[in-house]
Amino acid sequence: MLMGLFSRLLNFQTGSIPLEDFFTEIVAFWFESNPNFLHAWLQHVHALDEKDIYSHVDTQKSFPALEHHTKDSRPDMVIELVGDTCQDIVFLESKIGSSEGGNQLQRYAEILANLSGYRHKTLIYITRDFEPKDKSVIFQDVSQHQIKFKQLRWYQFYQFLSLYKETTLTREICSFMEENEMGHSSQFSDTDIQALANFPQALKLMDVTMRGKVTQRFEEVTGQKQTRNNALKQLLDYGNYNIVAGMPTGKWFCCLGFLLQSTHIAAPLTVALWLGAEPKSAHKFEIVAMMQAVCSQRGWRGTELTTSLQAKPRIFREQSLQTFLSEEDQISAIQDFFMKALAELQEIQKQYKHLPWSAY
Questions:
Q1: Geometric angle at alpha carbon 281, from 78 and 108, rounded to 5°
Q2: Is the pTM here over 0.85, yes or no?
């Protein structure tokens, strides 16, 4: 299938732009270019009750921390709506494959509550995945009468956009959303039903591939015991079937398994071993330097290999699952790949032994 324009542009950036930020800019441009659509959508989700208004859209706008906050707040999108006699404001926070940061929505609600001069204030939390929120937690220090909270899914936006008059831009936005699993239908298709029927067998094959000598070797290299429940939790939480070893001293981790979905758009289904660091890792500078060197010297794939505050650097030793289909014994071939990747990881550990590799 031909990749859409936005996917190609994002790939051209070699992973330096987070998917969520990239898509936020696309939607913000669409809103700015098509205010009638923006107003119609806000009315559709009950975040707007005026018709004759002017709108202005900002992205990544910073708001100073309140006295009890530990950092400034930066919603993905800020929409200001100005009518003849009133002014409204909307904070929109988007998540695609990630979840809410620590007390993020609560901070945004408190920031909104402290803004003056607005008639209505709305906080929209729109996600690709199901992530229900408790309003009593978000508004524990703010009156719910001051702010409207709307929790939405990106597929709902996709469905609304699909009903709008078709243009080249709307086609590209819809294509990008489909490629990133934001444009799914609310109906089961024949393909979905077939996939569900085949899933138990696929799960067994993944288990057989990862268990035994592969898991044993992973435990030896990472120093952390594994159970099947770990892989199932990864599948439920992140959509990938893998085992994981955390390295809490450096706030980073090592995973091995099947990448069933990825924020790297062009990536097919792959088997992989990968390393990742959290945004607030105290060793981020050294870890990113190592990751950059590994990508350059060993041919691993890297994403977000910067030391910026929001970056989540990752490197992958991976191979497309498709390449194993010609093997007579596919399970053994994939296991061989995992074992070689673990041997390479052990070499990297020795080369960069100053990094906090310990699982404890």
A1: 20
A2: no
